[in-house]
Amino acid sequence: MAISIYEHSLRKGRPFIKINCAAIPEGLMESELFGHEKGSFTGAISKIRGKFEIADQGTIFLDEIGDMPLTIQAKVLRVIQEKEFERVGSSKSIKVDIRFVAATNMNLEKMVEEGKFREDLYFRLNVYPIKIPPLRNRPDDIPFLADYFLKKQSKSINITPEAMEVLISYSWPGNVRELQNIIEQSSIIAAGEDIDINHLPIKIRNSSVSYLKNLYNGNDVKSIDEQLAEFEKRMILDALFRSSGIQVKAAELLGINQRSLWHRIKKFNIDVKEMKKNDLQKL
Fold first, then answer.
1. Model pTM?
2. For the structural domain made of 135-282, what CATH number should be given?
3. pLDDT, tens digit (0-9, with 9 covering 90-100), for 41-59
4. Domain 2-125 has CATH 3.40.50.300
């Protein structure tokens, strides 16, 4: 949504800076947003421009704004109101002209009442609110979103009508990001074929009434060895996705040694390089 707003605005072609407030440690957020001067703190070996300075004349997207610390909220409010800030370790004000777009899955009104989010910042950001229903309430969007994510894959692949029916019937607690992750995982498992029901994660298949009916009617029945192998493969895939394809980290998540993980990767013919490629494409 934020990218669409940017691409249809008068600021298109100018900087578009995305900041995930939940992903930046509190101790680093001030420097990340405002930049810092050389020697302003331990490790500041050179002057660094912050995201706000880089976004001048453009748009800045504050994703997961509800996770922004209160101490930083006050400084962001000043940038919105006064259109200026100082780098960490400097007293010189820097003027900027930025369009702010913010998003959150939290209830900011409730957070304001609880003292967890600044009321003044909330009202400054809440100029033109756009409320997007959760994905489970707009199943008609799922085929279009799935097709969009498929086109971003490095190989040509489609989804069978049966698999699409299962995707549409799922509740999607993780919303669009969960759908994107499932499409990426399933396309790797499909290994050149179209994504079918059997390529989808077990939790999604089991949530589908139509799939369960077929299963208990005797269709698509698998032996216990086949189901255990499939479960093992999906655990490995999940760990590799969470670790961006770094096998040392994936082995730690699974509680096994790296050599054991390597043998399993070979056993299931998992393309780790493809996972790393997809992770780089997100950056």
1. 0.62
2. 1.10.8.60
3. 777 788 889 999 999 999 9
4. yes
